[in-house]
Amino acid sequence: MNKNNSFSQRPFLGAGTTLPDFLRCAAETTTRRLNQTSIPFFLGIIFPSLLVLCFLSMPSWVNAAEMGKIPFIYSSDIYHPPADPDDHYDLALLFALHELEVKAFLFDNAMHRDNPGDHAFGALKQVAAIYNKPVPPFAVGLSQPLKSLDDPGTDQPAEFQKGVELLLDTLRKSEQKVVLFLVGSCRDFAAAFNREPELLKNKVKAVYVNAGNGPDGEQNEWNVMLCPVSYESLMMSGLPIYWCPCFHGLTGNMKPGELEIRKQYATHFVIPNQAEFLRNVSPELHNFFFYMLNNCPEDPIAFLKSEPQPLPTSGRHMWCSGPFFHAAGRDIYRSTDGKYMACTPEQARALGSSVKKIEVYRFEPLRLERGYKDDSTLAKENTVCRFMGTEEDKVGQNSLEKDGIKDHHVRISGLDVQKKIAKIVITAPREARWESTPSDRWWRVASERNGEYLDCYFSPYTPGTHTLSLSFEDGSNQEFTCYVPGRWPYFRSTFVENSSTEVFRYLEKDFNAIMCSVVSGLLEQETQK
User: Fold this and answer.
1) 20 to 30 Å CA-CA from 439: which of 142, 287, 377, 522?
2) What's the CA gap between 158 and 180, in Å, rounded?
3) For 5-154, where are the E strands, in sequence order?
4) Domain range summary for the chain, segments of one domain joined by +
């Protein structure tokens, strides 16, 4: 960004007239008027007129960006070289939204690396320079996963405590409620809540969690897998959560119509061509992306002024843009010439009838419950099959000998005590199969019979619906199903009218194209000023 064209010098009141020019002119005029007229005339007529003129002449960015900034704490697993370049796109978008005032920046350390230089400190300094903003306070977060839902992480190394400490200190000092926004793991936010839950309940306006799959199902998305316990802890904290699933949660049991709806509970979209997407941004922002994509070793700030070089034409997966706009209080508008933009209410009013608000996405309230999906089948009255957990070691994979690995436990209750079992077969997704009789191909099932109860033990392999088939000595058969969860959190969701948790849902079928247009246009607009 050209500092000679910074926001404090943006023209208004006529071509070439800046805010400092206007105030200086007003002061000179006031001095001359005081010499020519009485004090009562000045206080009664001139001074109020000047105040009204100054207020009415303020451009919309002053109202939004200076008079109503939103305190913001940001957590990102951003690295150099990048683990995923979408983090740098998110960083550029964050600084382009002037309503958001970054009070603290946490470098999420879930992908802990031995070299602290791998965190993209240079990228943070680059965007601050590009947007002519100060570098916010920053710190590196916890390096190890949380061990339990209430783990505060205080036993982790001292050098990695600064991220959580910065978050808590920022909340204590803030006179306003603060928005928390994460695009990596939930580790530092969850640890902060476990240390001082009342502070977060009193000082946090909203938490944007860009992680997970959509409602219902196993949450085996990347940001969740970085620290599953912290994700579950934060989502169940009772804080005002805006849940922004990266992908939709789909199961094979859904009907086609339900599948189409469930696909909408995701923030994901794709930039088709990065070079085309960024073709009109400032040279400095162009170089910011080139520096990142090519793992450049030069000084990050000096590189911004270098001669721009071609960007790749490959695509780029994106996730968090819609939530950013929502956090900034912006809505999506379509102009009369078919362009899309994210506007504050002030900006939309200034544009008037030339733009129309459209609902591209929204957040819907829901209630989340922990636990796996219970899709057990009732074979007959009082006869049921349930997953009991992953408990002690009872069986090996290819033999009935223990192998030191905890086994799944499924219990069937309500069986006819007079019927003797000849064989047990369990089948599951990914062509998994376990049998009670020896086999050169399939894994083994161990069982214990106690009257009407049958306990089956088998080695873990894959989550999902498991089918248990019993063959009896009298030639009859009976079949049951139950859901066996995987190693990741599992949520059951109920949509309600009011809840502290709301989930992102896109509504426009052209969501991908609209988001590309809005983000590209904003980056062009804000860096060319």
Assistant:
1) 377
2) 23
3) 70-76, 100-107, 138-140
4) 3-58, 64-370+491-527, 378-484
Q: Which pair of structure tokens corresponds to residue 392?
A: 């002690």
d(CA 207, CA 178): 9
**CB crowding 93-114: b at 16 or more within 10 Å, else e:** bbbbbbbbbbbbbbbbbbeeee
Could you tell me where the DSSP H helices lie in 101-221? 121-130, 162-173, 187-195, 197-203
Pairwise CA distance, residues 1 & 97, whole Å: 15
Specify the fold of 378-484: Immunoglobulin-like (2.60.40)
Cα separations in angstroms, 256 against 247, 253, 263:
18, 10, 11
Kindly list the strands in the beta sheet with 464-472, ordered across the sheet, starting from the edge strand earlier in the chain.
378-380, 383-390, 408-413, 453-458, 443-450, 432-435, 421-428, 464-472, 477-484
How far, CA to CA in Å, does 35 sit from each of 24, 31, 38?
17, 6, 8
Longest CA–CA span in the chain (Å) reads 116
Tell me the pairing of strands 477-484 and 464-472: antiparallel
Q: What is the pLDDT of residues 103-130, one digit of tens each?
A: 999 999 998 765 556 899 999 999 999 9
The Cα 373–Cα 192 span in angstroms is 30
The predicted-structure confidence for 407-465, as pLDDT tens digits, reads as follows: 999 999 999 999 999 999 999 988 999 999 998 899 999 999 999 999 999 999 888 88
Are the C-beta atoms of residues 481 and 466 closer than 8 Å to each other? Answer: yes
Burial class of residue 509, CB neighbours in 10 A (0-12, 13-18, 19+) = exposed
